[in-house]
Amino acid sequence: MAKKDVPPRWDRKMQQRLARGEAAALGELYDRFASLVHGLAHRVLGDERAADGITREVFIHVWEHPDSYDPRQGPLRTWVATLTHRLAVQRLRATETAALAREGSGATEELEHRVRRASVAARADYIVQSMPVPLRSALERAYFQRRDYRQTAADLGITEDEARRRLRLGLQLLSTAHDTEAPGAPPGYGGAV
């Protein structure tokens, strides 16, 4: 295996600990990724209780099937996010299909539109959360605090050119949320929802 193909050490060790059945490893994994899992599930489902259920399902799946994660395929964070997305979309489809059946309307196009919209929103959240802190800090100042690049540069103690570069790169990454194969998004986050 080439040096660049070596998965992060923490990911490999965590997978090994989970495979051995170490409850402490599950607790550590939960502490590290529970907010990511819950946030993505809530973004897709728009329901706190349903997001809680998906969060439980994800960590149960990780506990019962630790060998389904292959560290050579990517980071553990990405695998957990992809699993969350898949389970949340399945739940959304099931609940929306049941609602459409009760209403007697067969508007599957509306269902798929909702699923796509929820998937794009979840991808955008994942991209922002996965973004390096310097890029995320610049975007947060520009978007939430309505700061321009000059103000962002002053706030962060960087040059104006660096602020523009960070904002441009952050926005480029965020724009991939609509792409079918978005770089930086978990595998499977693209067209296969």
Automatic annotation (TrEMBL):
Keyword Acyltransferase: no
InterPro entries: RNA_pol_sigma-70-like, RNA_pol_sigma-70_dom, RNA_pol_sigma70_r2, RNA_pol_sigma_r2, RNA_pol_sigma_r3/r4-like, WH-like_DNA-bd_sf
Domain RNA polymerase sigma-70 region: 29-94
Any Pfam family the entry gives: Sigma70_r2
Superkingdom of this protein's organism: Bacteria
Keywords for this protein: Sigma factor, Transcription, Transcription regulation
Family matches, as SUPFAM superfamilies: Sigma2 domain of RNA polymerase sigma factors, Sigma3 and sigma4 domains of RNA polymerase sigma factors
NCBIfam families: sigma70-ECF
Stated family: Belongs to the sigma-70 factor family. ECF subfamily.
Descriptive protein name: Sigma-70 family RNA polymerase sigma factor
